[in-house]
Fold each of these.
Amino acid sequence: MIRETIVTTVSPAGEAHIAPMGASVVEGGYLLQPFRPSRTLDNLAAAKSCVVNFSDDARIFAGCITGRHRSWPTVPATRIPGAARLADCLAHDEVEVVRMEDDPTRPRFFCRTIHRETHSSFLGLNRAVAAVLEGAILVSRLHMMDPDRVDREMNYLSIAIDKTAGPAEREAWDWLCETIADHRARAAS
């Protein structure tokens, strides 16, 4: 099973980095597979720890993917010195790397959960959040996907946006649509 999460890592200089990432659930923790090159990969390799944040705020996922985000506040993690978590997450797991398998494209970091904390109640599923997550994945792959397929999938996902989105999901969806339009304008010029 893969959980869509926000992973916070910290650089050797102490700067927090926030990135959406699918975290594969494994016994005792997670398997994280950041792509090369990435700050998440560099930070994870250096610190040997990170925080897996659980959020239902679609803007964080879309904002990180599109670069149209505000500053997402972080606070110190509870157990891992120097680590950071999202200030407004529903819950978080603090993890340490127990094993790394190198790969030229996506190294595999096997992580053990050392602390789990809940901060807010989960009040249910919203289809628009799921649509934004799927849209964000599409946007992250614009450089390798057929534009017609992107249009078909975005049109289908827009049904959930139209029916169930609140202001946060609409804002996130707009960022995704603007990014697609910008990508196509650059490709056409």
Note: DSSP finds five helices and eight strands in the chain.
Amino acid sequence: MGWGIRGRLLHASCLLWLTLLVMGPAMGAGAADERVLVLGDSLSAAYNMPTESGWVARLSERLGPEGRVINAAISGETTAGARARLPAALERHEPSIVIIALGGNDGLRGISPAAMRDNLLAMIERSRAAGARVLLAGVRLPANYGTAFIERFRQVYRDVAERTGVRLIPMLLDGVAEDPSLMQSDGIHPNAKAQPIILQTVWSGLSPLLESDPEGSPAD
């Protein structure tokens, strides 16, 4: 029995409606309309390489056209400097997610872990007050800074994460800093080959935050 023109049009319309109904939630999931603000230092500022080679630029590519990444990383930045700049950055960019990847310069300059902790806590509180979810990324210090100081430094990130409940990437350069072939000649900064690895490390912490609530836990 033939459908007729009207019947075929009705059938096609029903199929289209069902397709949109099923695909609608999936199309809106993930990085849609996410605005990610990166607060960092030279490890995030594509130091000594083209900007497009850095992990932050690569993150923008991964999020796709519906997401936006603002790289507010500055070489030499400390937690105090970023804390001072944060209110203006939040007001200007209105991010939905803030990635804080700082602390290395605090440690290298001998700034007290207590001051670093207070700055990180203040940035997390300010970001959340602005409605943003927060991802915290830790960094490591060179071995010549001594075991005791290095452990106090690392403990700051754990303490801040435990106190605030933010997601923590224990070490931004995980799988990179231990491999000389992935580091620049200064032994401090990662090279271009390391950037995809850093991106994957960041993505492992960031992906659960996409379209989650401001407290950092996945939305229901």
Note: Helices lie at 4-27, 55-63, 79-93, 104-108, 113-129, 147-164, 195-206.
Amino acid sequence: MPFETWAAFAAASAVLLIIPGPTILLVVSYALGQGWRTAFPMAVGVALGDFTAMTLSMLGIGALLAASATVFTILKWIGAAYLVYLGIKLFRAGGTLNAEPRTDAASAAKMMGHAWLVTALNPKSITFFVAFLPQFLDHNADFLTQMLIFETTFLALAFANAFGYALVAARARNLVRNPKAIGIFNKTGGTLLVGAGIATVAVRSGS
């Protein structure tokens, strides 16, 4: 795999992960209510959930890739359009992070399981991966090797992101409840998502 492809995937993944979604809302809720001790179990649960959703998505993508190059190409175009759609939706989102503190005394195992369920069983997660991952796959290269590299990279970033959000929420609670800060997050992330979708189309058209 060319280093440029891996670097582009890692950068895009980092941008997408930092954007607040259902999983991050759950992480922040636990951290607001129970402090920094939630960081590790929640981060592990998020990583396991992303592993589940990402593996299911990759297996489906692999089947499409093996069945028809044309269908796979169509999927890439649909994925690019989906990234643009997500970017516009995020850009227009408000500046609030609706995460209420969870005051129930949950064990580490319960928090981990909750994070896994929310992340893995969210249909949007699989839909997102199906739209996102094909943009970086090379149908001429070994699929399993690419799958291993992409999953390892994404899961490491997902763990670090959830861990970081939990620590910030526990120690800087005003920041995660600041509408201006969340608004900047949403507009920046939305702009980058739209740019990623357009860049994908431009590269594909040029080639």
Note: The chain has a mean pLDDT of 77.
Amino acid sequence: MTDTDTANQGNGAAPQAPKVNMRILAQYMRDLSFENVAAQKKMQGANVQPDIQVQVSLDAQKRDAENQYDVATKFKITSKNKADDQTLFLVELDYVGVFLVEGVPQEQLHPFLLIECPRMIFPFARRVISDVTRDGGFPPLNLDTVDFLALYRQELQRQTAAQAGNAAAPVQN
């Protein structure tokens, strides 16, 4: 036994966990759509009271390069008039970050990619949505912060429920 081995055993130090390294290599809009329905229908006046619905979905895929991943955050935002349920505008944004991720254990990689990575690029996607709604003739829409951990947990529950439903369903020929 070497002096180093003896020293490590004596102080009870646990083996060092690998250091996590995450960097955003690039980010871009894969798809952006804005539809100003209110202007097309010539809606105006004091009776316009927007009700905004935001849907967020996530996707992550391995790239060909080692330890690199595409993480897509997809937003679908619909604004309807509370008075008559007419659509005012619709925004769809598919915002992607290219990440280098090293040192994350394989069993923790999926939640890391779908929680931490979207958290890093969210402010940039929020700015795009704010700019496009402002440039589209509406007050800038500043999205509230998204709880990506809660979103991830909801998706796991949905998948578990879907699997339980498929297991209970009879097989038909």
Note: Strands lie at 21-36, 50-62, 68-81, 87-102.
